């Protein structure tokens, strides 16, 4: 048993039972080990959850970084959509990601920020746009994962929510609000 196996099994457990039911006791049973042996790899459950969040983001981390010839709008939209897709890959993916430190992704974040600044986005606006898009995406996915496929008993005058359309509309507002601030 190594760290990667523990994380992979923990993610499979997450998909089966949801974040609230993931426990080191349950994970140890799944792995056929005693619970204290997990502490060899992770000192606390918080450390395990951080490793799970990092591993769950691997598909997004594997997406290509922007290059100098890319249009900032197209890249920003694709990057945010890719982030959403990745969060949706795991049950409670947004909850798992929320609050997780981006320590493993700092170089990629710096590259993305430099790309936006080089594209004419003022540095502060680039930072805020990335933060806003991230938090908007996590919040959107939290709402989507909180009631997947369930139809609410809403009054007739309240429209049902199409999560993807609502996400796209919000993302368009973020990019539209940023565009006038871009030089050139």
From TrEMBL:
GO MF annotations in UniProt: DNA-binding transcription factor activity; transcription cis-regulatory region binding
GO biological process: negative regulation of DNA-templated transcription; response to antibiotic
Coiled-coil spans in chain: none
InterPro entries the record matches: DNA-bd_HTH_TetR-type_CS, Homeodomain-like_sf, HTH-type_TetR-like_transc_reg, HTH_TetR, Repressor_TetR_C, Tet_transcr_reg_TetR, Tet_transcr_reg_TetR-rel_C_sf
DNA-binding region: 23-42
SUPFAM superfamilies associated with the record: Homeodomain-like (SSF46689), Tetracyclin repressor-like, C-terminal domain (SSF48498)
HTH tetR-type domain boundaries: 1-60
Protein's name according to its UniProt entry: TetR/AcrR family tetracycline transcriptional repressor
Organism: Actinokineospora auranticolor
């Amino acid at each position: 048993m190594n760290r990667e196996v523990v994380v992979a099994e923990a993610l499979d457990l997450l998909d089966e039972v949801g974040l609230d039911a993931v426990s080191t006791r349950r994970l140890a049973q799944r792995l056929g080990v005693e619970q204290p042996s997990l502490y060899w790899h992770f000192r606390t459950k918080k450390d395990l959850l951080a490793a799970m969040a990092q591993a769950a983001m691997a598909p997004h981390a594997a997406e290509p970084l922007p290059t100098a010839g890319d249009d900032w709008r197209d890249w920003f939209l694709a990057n945010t959509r890719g982030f959403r897709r990745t969060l949706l890959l795991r049950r409670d993916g947004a909850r798992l990601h929320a609050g997780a430190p981006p320590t493993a992704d700092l170089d990629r974040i710096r590259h993305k920020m430099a790309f936006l600044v080089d594209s004419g986005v003022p540095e502060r606006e680039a930072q805020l746009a990335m933060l806003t898009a991230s938090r908007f995406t996590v919040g959107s996915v939290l709402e989507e994962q909180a009631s997947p496929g369930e139809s609410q008993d809403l009054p007739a005058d309240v429209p049902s929510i199409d999560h993807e359309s609502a996400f796209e509309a919000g993302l368009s507002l973020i990019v539209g609000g940023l565009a006038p601030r871009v030089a050139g």
